[in-house]
Amino acid sequence: MADRPEVHSQASQRDPNARPRRDMKDVGSEDRFSDTSGVLFEQAMAQTRMAVCLSDPNLPDQPIVFANRAFRRLTGYDEDEILGRNCRFLQGPKTDRAEVSRVREAIENEDVVVVELLNYRKDGTEFWNALHLGPIYDAQGKLLYFFGSQWDVSDVRAAREEERHARAMARELSHRIKNMFSVISGIVNVMGRVRGVEDTASEINSRIHALGRAYETTLDEASVGVIDLGPAVKAILEPYAVDERVKFLGNGAQVPFSAMSLIGLVLHELAANATRYGAWAEGYDGQVSVDWQRRDGNAVLTWIETGGAPISGAPAHSGTGATIMNRMVAAARGTIEREWKPEGLHAVLTVPIEGGNT
């Protein structure tokens, strides 16, 4: 559309309220809105950082009749390049026509609409414009203007795109990790049968499956390099079918992928021991409380058993699982403290972590 400044003089002759408005410091007394509300509006529009414009639907091609300073800064156009023009001059070759159609329909129906449009500044640079458009009526219900507020959301859109890419990468990583665990498990089973050590292969596979469960619940949605600890803990313990015999007390802590491997294996060993000798052993109706927190740069997991088989003290010898667990914790510069109380095992795992959110 061509710029048609002559529209303003015609509009002024018919309706003084349709005259182009300027920022407060530039408005003479003859150009102000007719009442106190108008003065307040002009002052607010002059000071706000949000780009605002008014268009007149009663004039040919609905020209802009007011644009505040923020609108000019956002678009790079001067006032005389804006007033009298339809707002489509901000559109360009990549502007989504479907979103433009939504704006057109809202105008035709005198409705409110919020869209994100790819617009263009005077120098040709692109920006994403969050446009809020709605009608303004007088006291008699006559449509006077359409109000439009614009907000540059280019950074927000870029962040969304980065997040979508990260999520796609996380889903691909999840798929590959699951395949890797499946392949490793198959190799262990075959080697166990070939060498006649099926029981040992079964124990190894139980640990592989525990690792897989630690990741698969949350990895599909992870996009910032961390895993939600709560869902992972619950997924690891789910195969033990102890729904009513375990209490989860942890908060929404997150941990890096690297920490999850160790936490998953430790939980597996604790749960396996509870099933064989502790709170979940056959013939007992014991309970386990599992707590997890992030404290001072560490992930702290607390495991408390009650009501299981009686304990007279620490076992005389450490089993294979405990040995594996101790070595992995030491390699990660963590600690695991165990206390064999008469009512059951109390264990606290502390794993140093970097990054992650509480």
TrEMBL record:
InterPro entries: HATPase_C_sf, PAC, PAS, PAS-assoc_C, PAS-like_dom_sf, Sig_transdc_His_kinase_HWE. The keyword Flavoprotein applies. CDD domains: PAS (cd00130). It catalyses: ATP + protein L-histidine = ADP + protein N-phospho-L-histidine. Residues 113-165 form the PAC domain. It comes from the Bacteria. Gene3D superfamilies: Histidine kinase-like ATPase, C-terminal domain (3.30.565.10), PAS domain (3.30.450.20). Residues 64-110 form the PAS domain. Residues 16-33 have a biased composition (Basic and acidic residues). Residues 1-33 are annotated as: Disordered. The keyword Magnesium does not apply. Pfam families: HWE_HK, PAS_9. Its EC number is 2.7.13.3. Keywords: ATP-binding, Chromophore, Flavoprotein, FMN, Kinase, Nucleotide-binding, Phosphoprotein, Photoreceptor protein, Receptor, Sensory transduction, Transferase. This is histidine kinase.
